[in-house]
Amino acid sequence: MADKDAFTPRVFLIRHGQTEWSQNGRHTSTTDIPLTDRGEKQVKASAKYMYGSGKLIDPAKLAKVYVSPRQRATKTYELLSGKTDGYEVTECLAEWYYGEYEGLKPAEIRAKRKAQGLDKDQEWEIWRDGCEGGESPAEVTSRIDSLIKTIRNLQAPHMQDSEPKDVVLVAHGHLTRAFAKRWLGYELSFPLSLMMEPGGVGVLSYQHHNIDEPALLLGLGFPSQE
Length: 226
Fold this sequence. Notes:
The protein is an alpha/beta fold. The protein has helices spanning 20-24, 37-50, 71-81, 106-115, 126-129, 137-155, 173-183, and strands spanning 11-15, 62-67, 88-89, 166-171, 201-206, 214-216. A six-stranded mixed beta sheet has the order 3-2-4-1-5-6, with helices on both faces. Helix 3 links the parallel strand 2 (62-67) and strand 3 (88-89). Helix 2 crosses helix 3 (71-81) and helix 6 crosses helix 7 (173-183). One of its GO terms (molecular function) is sedoheptulose-bisphosphatase activity.
């Protein structure tokens, strides 16, 4: 971050590494499957460049780490940090509950809904329609907003001081993107296209050291290693 923003709190959004189902494009929420070997390597590569003293995610600057309950998320944080503790597990970061769509690919979901007589006017869109037997956008919004409130209460007193105030979140493909939308104040149906690769890291922060100006940190300079 620029010198003028050096003390502004940040939230690091991290997607778990690859699993067999994420590799195949299958919707995975409560099914608790492990990382693949490639998934573990993805996270270790991210850790090498982004986690550690003087790096983008500096443990000395962290105030809190929240992790989804699924093993693919907890394992991701443990590989990233090299620790098996120091984080709080929260259902607020569990993946969007897909209900009847668990294990299905997008094309299979759309075919299923068509056979049920749904989506006659427009194709299924999870951000607008949610999941049959699973969560609606409003339900996902509610639990995300609860965590956002907690994070902002934690960071608000430290907008310009040097106290540890950064937060790490380890979650899932849909959930990380939904979190980013809600951080910016958008409804989940708002047409903001976001991508998050397995093992990837996104950064949220604030403009002008102001808790009321949440922002997506679109580009950043990496800390000098000198």
